[in-house]
Structures are given as structure tokens and as C-alpha cells.
Amino acid sequence: MREKATTLYIGPQHPGITGNMMVRLKVEGDTIVKATTEVGYLHRAFEKLQEKRNWLQSFTLMCRFCVPETDPMEESYARAVETIEGREVPERAKYIRVMVLELARLASFMLWYGGQNGSLGLYTIGQWSVGDRNYILDLFEELTGGRVYHMYIWPGGVRRDLPKGFEQRVLKTMDYIEKRLDDYDDIMFNNAIFKKRTQGVGIVDKETAIEYGVVGAVLRGTGIKSDIRIDDPYEVYDKLDFEVPTAEGGDIWARALVRRQEARQSIRIVRQVIADMPEGSVYNRIPNPQKWTLPKGDAYVRTESVRGEIGLYVASDGGLYPRRVHLRGAAYVHGITLLEDVLKGSNVADVSAIMNSLGTCPPEIER
Amino acid sequence: MKEIKSKLVEAIKATYPEATEKDYEGNRLDFYVNKQCVPSVLTYLKSGLGYIHLSHIAFVDWLEEGEFELIYIVWSPSEKLKVFIRARVERENPLMPNIENIWRQANTYQREAREMYGIQFESFDAPQDLMLEDWEDIPPMRRDFDTEAYANKTYFHRSGREDALDVREAIIERSREEIPDFAKKYSR
Q: Which of residues 121 through 140 in chain B touch A, CB cutoff 8 A?
């Protein structure tokens, strides 16, 4: 007897979904035969709002595009504005920016540890890693005043210099996190359940990756060595020594292996940046924001986030407001076309694990 | 970098003589092309010249000039060069060629452009709604769409919060003080 297909709706409110979006599944038994993503629950029209705000007011909206990792968007915006205007950034500010970006990456990895394992029913590691993430958020709170939204990396540099003794506190936290990463390995990568549930699941092969414009850890999980920080270096990444890990297989397991090593590389970069940080000013003053106009022109800048490449296109018509700000999030590419195709043929129970692994971030898709 | 750029300009110009280029500092090179050429230029860049990564498609509304601009940004991992393919399309009944068969992720971009700007794509068969639902107004990302008027028409202010509409006026009423001169222009 032929099995009848059933329609299942996962989301928009569902603990396994990585935000407010819905996936409509057509299933036969527990195998998915068709998946359709439905976004639109989080559309806040930031890009439209930015067209009516001046260059500095627009900056405060940038970090809100995606919650788990807010600094790459701020940095992209700052760099795009600086590129259009030709504004110089002090050397020390560049080092601080890299430090903040890498701390944000680490904090985002911690959330990923929780999400990825939570989606497989392994809740302990999520409680550990989200708890440890708070130590990084404490650092952010001390530096910027905000735990999640920082609004710290702005055009011309960063908003303020490091507080006294901040470097030591960062290094201390890095030592602690590094030790904890070993604990995560024990509970996650030596865990038979995690291996069984992730190996051979959610496969993205090399050809698909290129055809779908896949970026970040998902691309590196297919064995392709690609990282914006190396390929198209920004700030001071070209002066730093770090590795780009890759893994073979293209499944959730491979992507987890890549992210596991990337977290360690982030710690390595933070230590280097603190050791090499020069003295000096951190901010080239911008004019009165009410009268600040940028020359006519446009820029496209890219930043590497945990989810992959984040691109920002900014166009200026010579006025007080941006003509257009257009964000390309990694999730924009991974979260719709790729997710729909990867889900096809997989098990209903793996939907959440695959979404987490691809780095789906609905606020970034809808903006 | 200069050599790579001049080589690319030569290669593009040999096939598309009407394309004009603009060079930028760093690893960026712009080409202005006719909208009909877009798929063939992109195919040539992807399969002939190694620009395998479509990084972004940006849409800009140039209301004053009566045109939309679509900017296809491609990246070559081997040459480390960003190439911008820029094409313009008129605002009245905009129709662009479909590049979904070159890069799959263009599907999402084209759905967004169709929904937010009303740009149609040739033989593009994808679900109509992406982020909006049952939208009947003009496409909302167009410059002539007035967000404030739409919000005032669609939503209402919560009752009991009338005094919160403008903080300054509420303060005047309570304290009987004048608004300082510098703040007057921000007041309603």
C-alpha cells in the first residue's frame, strides 16, 4: 500500500527552529519529500528605515540585523562608509575592531554549541556553553555598555578606548574558554549519539556548494579552503597568523569539526591582537552628524562571521542619508534555497539539526 | 592586480564591445552593461574566467532618473578580484533577464527584487510571496512608497498614550516652560 504524504508545519514558534520562521514539510512516513521555507515573521524593514536616517542614525540599526553575532554588521557598515568617504582609521582602532570581532565570533560559537546539541537532545553542553558565553558578554558590557547590541565599531574607529586592565581580563577569559573547549570536546565529539546523529546527515557536496553560493563553515566543511579574512583581508587580518580549518564530507559532523577548530583559532587571534596592539588614538572624529554628507559613490565590503560571509552594499547619492543599504547575510543564501534542497530526503527529526548546522538566522534573511 | 584587471577588461571588451568599465582602488572593478547582456556576461565570467562566486545582487532605486539599478557582484577566489556587473532597467514595467540557472541562490534575490521593487524576471517561476503577505500597495522598497503615511493609515496609537505622542509638548504642558530654540525644529 502506498503511503500518503502528510503536511507538517514546523515553526514559526518552535524550540528547534533557529528563530521566527516556518518550514512547511511534506512527509511520507518520516522522510521529507518536499520542504518549503516561509519567512516574513521578522521583517522590520531596516533597510527602508535607513533611507530616512542620517549616516550615524543608520549605524545604530546595523547591529540589529542579526542577534547572535552583531559586530560583523557594524564593522561592515563602518568600513563601507569609510571606503566611500576615504576616511582613515587609526591603527589601534583596527586592532580593537579585530579583537571585538573575534570575541563576537567566540560568543556566537558558544550559542552554536548550545543550538546544535540542543537540536539533538543533548542539553548539557548548551547549559555549559551559554553560561560560559556570559563571561564574554561581561567583557562586552564593560567595553561597550551593552551585552548583545554594542554599537561600538562606528565610522572613523571605535567609540572608546579599552578600560584600564581590560587586556588582562580578556586574556584570563580566553584561558578559561580554551580550557572549557576541551570539556566540550569530551561531551560532544566523543559522544556516540552526536556522531550517529550527525555523520552522513545534511550533506552539501562541493558542486552544490559552488552552485548555491555557499560560504563560511558550510563551504569549509566540503573541503574548500575559503575565508574572507584570508582571501579578501580587512582591518589587520593580513598581519595575523592563523589557520583556516577544513573538513571533508560536507555533513553536519564535518561542519561541527570546522567550527570546533575555528573557535580555537579565534582565541589565537585575540591573543595575537592583544600582544601586537599599538598605542595611539582610536577614533578619527566625524563631522556633526546632522550635517554629515558623504560623496556620491558606493561600496561593497565583506566580513567573515560564524555563519559565513556577510556582505554589505552601501550607496550614497551625496546626501545626508544613505541611498541604499543592502545586507547580504550568509543565512540569506543558506536559509532558503539550500535549506529546502538539503532537507529533501532527510528525516523529520533532523530538521532542527540541519538548520542549526547551516547557520540559519531568520532576522538576517528578512532584515 | 593591475595586470589582472587589464586582462579582464580586454577579455570582456573583446566579447562585449559596448561594455564600459570603471576602475577602483583595491580589488574592485566595475562594468556597465546592457541589461540583455547580463546572463551571458555572468556565464562567461563564471565558466570562462573563474568568477565562480556570486557574492551579492544589490538593487537600488534611482527615482529621479526613472531607473532601477541591479548590481551583480561576483568574486574570483583565484584572482582575488571583485567584479561589479551593473545594469539599469526602466522603472515603468521593469523586466530583467533571469539568472537563476547560473547561480541557484539568485532565486531568493530575484524573489526579493520582485516583491520589494516590482522588478519582474523573464520566465521566473517561484512562489510570489517571500516576506510580505497579500500586499496590495506599491512595492514597499520603492523610493516613492511613504512608510510613515502607510504606518499612520494601517496602525493606530494605543489609547491612553495620547500624551506620549510628543514628549516635548507633554513636558511644556506639565512644566509651563518654553522649548529651547535649538530644539524647536525637531518639535511637531
A: 127, 129-133, 140
